[in-house]
Amino acid sequence: MMRYEGNEELADKTACAGVRADLKMCLLQSDCCKKEKKTPRECLNRTDGSVPNECLVLRNTFFECKRSILDNRQRFRGRKGY
């Protein structure tokens, strides 16, 4: 999870917004985006090692969070992610 200074808050208050923001920042700071000048969307589909493993974990967490929105059982358990 990214650390935010002071009273910084995300403008997006929807479900899974924190995970989405962390995934976005992780991809933008990766070698794929910085050195190879690829878009974050292109970097998500790469498997050559230019994307850090933590970004791939965040991608899976974001997927699970979005899936938990559609799952009616999660009404009792709460959403996954943060």
UniProtKB/TrEMBL annotation:
Coiled coil: none annotated. This is Cytochrome c oxidase assembly factor 5. Belongs to the PET191 family. InterPro entries: Cyt_c_oxidase_assmbl_Pet191 (IPR018793). It comes from Anopheles dirus. Keywords: Disulfide bond. GO terms for biological process: mitochondrial respiratory chain complex IV assembly. Involved in an early step of the mitochondrial complex IV assembly process. GO terms for cellular component: mitochondrion.
